[in-house]
Amino acid sequence: MTAPHLLSPVTFAGQELKNRMVLAPLTRGRAGPDRVPNKIMGDYYVQRASGGLLISEATSISPEGNGWVDAPGIYTSEMTAGWKSITDRVHAAGGRMVLQLWHTGRASHSDFHNGELPFSASAVAINDGDGIYTPKGKKPFEVPRPMAVEDIKRTVEDYRQAAINAKEAGFDGVEVHAANGYLINQFLDSRSNQRDDDYGGSLENRYRFLAEVMQVVLEVWPAEQVGVRLSPNGVFNDMGADDYKETYMFVADKLNQLGIGYLHVMDGLAFGFHERGEAMTLQEFRHVYKGLLIGNCGYDKDTAEQRISSGDADMIAFGRPWITNPDLPVRFANDYPLESFDDPSHWYGGGSEGYSDYSDYEEATGIDQAEKLV
Ligand SMILES: Cc1cc2nc3c(=O)[nH]c(=O)nc-3n(C[C@H](O)[C@H](O)[C@H](O)COP(=O)(O)O)c2cc1C
């Protein structure tokens, strides 16, 4: 057996994935105000179906979870049907796709909620002068309303229903978004979570909300089809506390005990670093989490190959390079040049321009590749 490499297959949930490249979840704001997945979103995902596993953009589990203009949801039958038309097309193109389940918590604004404040673990605002884009323009972040226990219980049930809808929509699994400063991360982080009840204080208590979410999701999906995303080094949405290492080792150990299908760790620092100590590494997570480990953030072909050949990761997720290079695995396999991803003007919102109109290298150059490597 040859050693694993980026373009060699790997097994996820009993199915062979054709390579170890994962499309990172990328919010692109193309669903429109009704948040229903549409045709150009399907075009975009199908164009990227040469990846071993596609992770959808973050997708709201409930109206309360909304906090991004024109991002999709999975809480109505129209949304579920919209996603189904996308998973059908991705499967027909030979791809596998999981849905990222999202609740923004305090990374939202009352403009998204008919004037009601968004909620979070505690009444602690995001300290970020940049503010947030709302349907009414750019606004400063607000102090969120701390969640009552009934808010927590209702939100956990929203996760359950979203997980049910994701199954009906034909996904190959779900990824619980516990990263990048959104609601679950707001409970894990000891700066944003200042509760003094069962959901705050100790590691066990700060993990409790995620534990309850995992419980309901695992009642809907087999554990092997469920992943979780963590960002132990991230500063995005004002994250990072001095006890980050203990927190994330504790969480990884708990998730390992649940036997979930994969753990997705943003180990790289290219998306912002809290600088509270040494960055956590994939090796540290390897020690406690024994399932499929996905690394992400700032990887290129060579650094991804290194992580896989050293055994530090089983798969690597790519975000920005895949935006402008829809055929990224084919480009890596053939050492084709990459389009630059440095122009973010089309990242968030708009139509097909800067979204589903990037070309495959072979199509653009007319190369007739008789023997495809991927
Ligand atoms: C335009 C854009 C949208 C993103 N949306 C999401 C998202 O919906 N969910 C998420 O977990 N991360 C999101 N991220 C973070 C990416 O998944 C990824 O972690 C980040 O881009 C670093 O990986 P890269 O260096 O390969 O791009 C987003 C990043 C970008 C640039």
From TrEMBL:
Residues 6-338 form the NADH:flavin oxidoreductase/NADH oxidase N-terminal domain. One of its GO terms (cellular component) is cytosol. GO terms for molecular function: FMN binding; oxidoreductase activity, acting on the CH-CH group of donors, NAD or NADP as acceptor. Keywords: Oxidoreductase. Its cofactor is FMN. SUPFAM superfamilies: FMN-linked oxidoreductases (SSF51395). Pfam families: Oxidored_FMN. CDD domains: OYE_like_FMN (cd02933). Belongs to the NADH:flavin oxidoreductase/NADH oxidase family. PANTHER family: NADH OXIDOREDUCTASE-RELATED, NADPH DEHYDROGENASE 2-RELATED. This is Alkene reductase. It comes from Alteromonas alba. The lineage of its organism: Bacteria, Pseudomonadati, Pseudomonadota, Gammaproteobacteria, Alteromonadales.
